[in-house]
Amino acid sequence: MGLFKKDNCCLCGEKAGLLDKKCIDGKVCKDCRDKLSVWFDDYKNSTALDLRTQTERKKEDEARAKTLDFSRIFGEFGVILIDERAKVFTAFADTSSSLFGERKAVSSIDDVIKLHPDLISFDQVKDIEIDITETSREEKRTVDGQQVSYEPQRWLYMYSFTLRLTVDHPYIKSVYIPLNKGTVQIKNVGRRLWTDPGRKLAAHVLGLPELVKEDCAVIFDNETLMHRLFRSDYEMPDYSYGFKCTHENWSSIMEYQYYLAMAREIERIITEK
């Protein structure tokens, strides 16, 4: 490994910058980093040989990707493309063409190859987590130049859906895919209607996963007792997912369901449940 100067990239020999990543054998320039996996970040424990081996594997993945049938494509901000028959997928956290540009559609194998895919097999997936992040704020009105609460209070809840996969792969530890390009916004009259006994009962009886912890309050996903016992294909209960169901927020609640269903469908396909 003594062929290149310390200020040069240990892979290609070109000039390396002060902010370039460092591996065991020296620095790695941006051009060489671009040839590595977007999911790779463990430079400090990798040798130049490890990184060269990774680039060779990625070339093999790109060649193989041309032969696969990515018939299932999910996500908007990020995307996951799945070949169910080969039991292989590739994923990208962000498919934007520029910092402020439009999101680039990934709809063909040519689009996939341009993004230098990593292929991950279903049996390499150790765990899948559906991460639903909630933020909220009270909506107020202006009266005599002052911001005052509505009566009753009105709240806006915002949700982002991210699929997180832990994998057993030679150089990838985890993958995350933000599914929605903008937050799902649900307006509600008053706070979400959660009762502590009801939440604990639903968690115990249905085995619901904890999704978010905010201010020590535990928020579960949609499979509440109300949802399981009273909802049919033709009607939604007055309170759904802790929200007052109205004409104003109906479409937003349905959008919430859409992304949750998307995440669960991906999980079902990969885990073959």
Structure description:
With 273 residues, the chain is an alpha+beta fold. 25% of the residues lie in helices and 32% in strands. It contains 6 helices and 14 strands. The strands form 5 sheets. It has a 4-stranded antiparallel β-sheet with strand order 3-4-5-6, with no helix packed on it. Strands 7, 8, 9 and 10 form a 4-stranded antiparallel β-sheet that branches. A two-stranded antiparallel ribbon has the order 1-2. Strand 7 and strand 8 form a beta hairpin. The longest helix has 22 residues. The chain is elongated and about 65 Å long. The termini are far apart. 23% of the residues are buried. About 10% of the residues have low confidence.
Distance between the termini: 48 Å
Helix content: 10-25%
Shape: elongated
Report the biggest beta sheet as strand number plus sense, adding barrel if it closes: 4 strands, antiparallel
Instruction: List how many beta strands DSSP finds.
Output: 14
Largest beta sheet: strand ordering: 3-4-5-6
Q: What is the average per-residue confidence, as pLDDT, rounded to a whole number?
A: 80
SSE order:
EEHHEEEHEEEEEHEEHEEH
Number of helical elements: 6
Radius of gyration: 23 Å
**Which stretches of 5+ consecutive residues score pLDDT under 50?**
210-237
**Class by alpha and beta content:** alpha+beta
- Beta-strand content bin: 25-35%
Main attributes of the structure:
four-stranded antiparallel beta sheet, 6 helices, alpha+beta, 273 residues
Task: Give the SSE map.
Elements: E1 21-23, E2 26-28, H1 30-33, H2 48-65, E3 72-74, E4 79-83, E5 88-92, H3 109-114, E6 120-121, E7 125-143, E8 146-167, E9 174-178, E10 184-189, H4 196-206, E11 210-214, E12 217-220, H5 225-230, E13 239-240, E14 243-244, H6 250-271
Antiparallel strand pairs: 1-2, 3-4, 4-5, 5-6, 7-8, 8-9, 8-10, 11-12, 13-14
